[in-house]
Design brief:
With 257 residues, the protein is an alpha/beta fold. It has two domains: 2-145, Rossmann fold, CATH 3.40.50; 149-247, Orthogonal Bundle (Arc Repressor Mutant, subunit A). It has helices at residues 13-22, 36-45, 63-73, 88-97, 114-125, 133-148, 156-166, 171-178, 184-196, 206-219, 243-247; strands spanning 2-7, 27-33, 50-54, 79-83, 103-107, 129-131, 224-225, 231-234, 240-242. The protein has a six-stranded parallel sheet with strand order 2-1-3-4-5-6, sandwiched between helices. Strands 7-8-9 form a three-stranded antiparallel sheet. Strand 5 (103-107), helix 5 (114-125) and strand 6 (129-131) form a beta-alpha-beta unit. Helix 4 crosses helix 6 (133-148) and helix 8 packs across helix 9 (184-196). The model is unreliable at 248-257 (pLDDT under 50).
């Protein structure tokens, strides 16, 4: 019998779901809570075999964030996510999480009964993964949207830094505009921007990454550079193609300041 942690923010659904799952005789709910923070605390003290987690939760962390935090301590902890939410932020969080195995992600409306949830829990424990086709479509939709709107991949302060970077401002100038005393804060933020836009592996140094980030801001679309320095963008079919082949336009020089 699997010992399960149930994380569900609805105070009405949580006890009913616990009773239903316990009655299957396949799992035993050893703890039930409504927040990701409490789920993490519980796992640090008493590690369950598997977690059933709503994506929308009380507290600061959503279910995806909580799973990532738990998996830092317990790699590939089996987790089954379920949700009625259709917010881009949740699908974006899942895509960024890097969760590859020992999981399932389903719509709550498609898996209402405990008898339907138990096989997902068992598969997750066995290392298999499953994503509801409806959710997979939305994850890919958000991916395409983000790849065509690079600012959507950045947090608000990172967006502000990227915009000033594209204007040719130095780290000292950006730090002054944002009220930071230490310009190293901007350097760290730049690093997050480069990582979010896939510039870390391809760029030969920070100056190249900075220039390419400025180009991305000015172009308003995510771009990748091959080893020869040729910029590529996504075409309508989702393929990375050279900029000139895609638009007939060349990328002009950027003033690095």
């Amino acid at each position: 019998m699997l010992e399960m942690l149930l994380v569900e923010d609805s105070a009405r659904l949580r006890p009913a779901l616990k009773v239903g799952l316990d009655n299957t005789a396949a799992v035993r709910v050893v703890h039930a809570c409504g927040s990701g923070e409490e789920a993490l605390t519980f796992c640090l003290s008493e590690r369950p075999d598997v977690i059933l987690m709503d994506v929308q939760l009380d507290g600061e962390m959503n279910g995806i964030d909580a799973a990532v935090a738990i998996r830092r301590e317990f790699p590939r902890m089996p987790v089954v996510f379920y949700s009625i939410q259709d917010d881009d932020a949740y699908f974006r969080a899942f895509r960024r999480s890097g969760i590859l195995s020992h999981y399932a992600y389903v719509r709550k409306s498609n898996y209402l009964l405990p008898q339907m949830i138990v096989p997902l829990l068992q598969d997750a424990v066995s290392g298999r993964s499953f994503i509801d086709p409806e959710i997979e479509c939305r994850v890919q939709e958000v991916r395409r949207k983000d790849e065509q709107s690079p600012m959507a991949l950045l947090e608000p302060n990172e967006q502000a830094v990227a915009s000033m970077l594209a204007q040719g401002m130095s780290n000292e100038q950006i730090a002054a505009c944002m009220g930071f005393k230490d310009k190293r804060t901007i350097s760290r933020t730049n690093g997050q921007i480069y990582a979010a836009w896939g510039l870390v592996d391809n760029a030969t140094d920070e100056k190249v990454a900075r220039t390419r980030a400025a180009i991305i801001v000015r172009e308003g679309r995510l771009m990748r550079w091959d080893k020869g320095g040729i910029p590529h963008v996504l075409d309508n079919s989702g393929r990375w193609v050279p900029v000139e082949a895609n638009s007939g336009a060349k990328i002009g020089p950027v003033d690095k300041g």
